[in-house]
């Protein structure tokens, strides 16, 4: 608990002592609580608080933790704070949404019972300005970068052909091109049949987009379901895909990407079993552009999303495991 003591002292500016809960109090807890958590006590802002450290992060489930914390809160009549060594961004948002107190040492402290919400290092990539690529413009950029075997694939297409290739209307492509021009990434050539030409080569284009914060997160939202719809093609995404592109171990949670219009169609037909914001056997990531388009052009892992969209979806996650995996993606699939 030295790391949690140090973190709390840095945050609160006072000496914090964390002690293991006495055995006579631990013995009153159900065995499954005893085996799942290390339980400590401390004082924060003159309030007695119970800290519960999850012993096995790979077996962490929010719905289960919520029930356990409620049991401990009732048993001790004190605020209970979950302590986690690491926490994926999607789980962080779900904990906050469910109003569960938690601490990730060195990264975030959220204790609603004490009206505390301090965040420090969950955003390693800071956007430099408010200008962003639109989803359709980002699709064009990534299509070009990923298409190593034909660097003129985009340049040789008229706006109309580009719209057909990427599954957009001519108007949508015109707006995407205007977005790319405003960001200084392309030049438009031709009079009657206009085409685009990128100002930078593949690597410089990627670095320009990343360093200037032009990227947009391809994920619109995440929902959880208990069954995967069988009549819609889905691609592995998030940590399920990251494990395929890097040395990172796969997570217990299974993730799949689906284009937003396909998702809304399934929703309208009531094809999403037990859809909710918190937990389920599968997590569906609803994408702003069609993940199938870039998976097809990349064509090295046809069952998962392309590596660069995946990279962008994790760019503001400071988990060290994630950042190491992103470095591997750049080394393996960009250069």
Automatic annotation (TrEMBL):
<dbReference type="InterPro" id="IPR036390">
    <property type="entry name" value="WH_DNA-bd_sf"/>
</dbReference>
<dbReference type="InterPro" id="IPR036388">
    <property type="entry name" value="WH-like_DNA-bd_sf"/>
</dbReference>
<protein>
    <recommendedName>
        <fullName>HTH marR-type domain-containing protein</fullName>
    </recommendedName>
</protein>
<dbReference type="InterPro" id="IPR000835">
    <property type="entry name" value="HTH_MarR-typ"/>
</dbReference>
<dbReference type="Pfam" id="PF12802">
    <property type="entry name" value="MarR_2"/>
</dbReference>
<dbReference type="GO" id="GO:0003700">
    <property type="term" value="F:DNA-binding transcription factor activity"/>
</dbReference>
<feature type="domain" description="HTH marR-type">
    <location>
        <begin position="133"/>
        <end position="189"/>
    </location>
</feature>
